[in-house]
Design a protein that fits this description.
By secondary structure, this protein is α/β, with parallel strands linked by helices. Helix content is 29%, strand content 17%. Bound molecules: S-adenosyl-L-homocysteine.
Amino acid sequence: MGDAMTALPLVFDAPRRGIPPRHLADLTREEARAAVAELGQPAFRADQLARHFYRGVADPAQMTDLPADAREALAEALLPGLLTVVRHQTADNGRTRKTLWRLHDGALVESVLMRYPDRATVCISSQAGCGMACPFCATGQQGLTRNLSAAEIIGQAVAAAAAMANGELDGGPGRLSNVVFMGMGEPLANYPRVRKTLDALLTPAPHGLGLSQRSVTVSTVGLVPAIRRLTEEGRNVTLAVSLHAPDDELRDTLVPINTRWKVGEVIDAADAYARKTGRRYSVEYALIRDVNDQPFRADLLGRLLAGKLAHVNLIPLNPTPGSPWDASPLPAQREFVARLRAAGVATTVRDTRGQDIDGACGQLAAADQVAGVPSVAVPVPSVEPPVELGAEGDE
Ligand code: SAH
């Protein structure tokens, strides 16, 4: 592969940019009650506001259980609009919709809502840009702009739930059932806010979105300390590990974080997660023609995962602008699947929704789409990374 493909530095610490205005979804229930009391209102109004937020009600005029003369002030203080739609793009006969959001400081992120016969999944962003520098990923090529706040992440899921409830996608009203952290960013590099988001997703309505643990998936490049931390937290969501190569030599180049935490360490951490949660983890593997799709690599991957509580999700590479790589041809895909299955490893090939609107995995690159909004890449310090990733600005 060319030098240009590996030139980006790894970035752990998000640049400090303007912190979004305070939002109820960033606060604990106690903090929200205190904030409401400070506004001279009874504390239970915090619960009323939460109910409106998680139902996707944004217009104070519709919050009729709040006193008319206090609605505006309460909503302004605790439910500021953090996500502004720049545009929606639809594909797959109106069943996939990508939304480009502008944040308070002009940063741009995307989310993708996908409707299937039996479920509706939203793919959300946890950071603006990404610091993990994977050369085949459009977001990875942008660099990291900043971490999203919990409210900014949760807001994407709430908007998707409201869009489903309102029948904004083809097929009539429905229910958001799944959330995957496979949009822009590395969720485990923004750990505290992602954890807060998990709480909001899993908390029963009306104080959260009431999703089940198995229908929420956190996807990571393999930040081992953060996987271990997630293992201890007891929110048994599904874990997806973006492996993309079974051997360190290749993975060092495809997933540069591998230079810090090797294949073996990542798989060990995922195994520990599976033991603790009883939940199968998924191994993501983008099939890239003549790069990682050789039969011997299928066999290596099969040996690595045989007997483990894991399944492999193969994603034919979604080509990104400027990249010399493309998807493995079908015969190579079939051979790869056959070898994994022969090794006893459950394997599926992902259907790639939204390709024609650049809404498929690894294609999200919001900053490229609107002129004048630069993304900022900051060189990684030469010291060892802190164990508490993303600790900056934490609660
Ligand atoms: N940072 C997280 C989540 C974001 S990407 C992670 O890496 O897991 C979600 C998935 O899409 C990851 O498995 C990622 O490796 C994969 N992906 C990235 N670019 C891709 C591309 N061009 N084609 C196919 N999959 C891609």
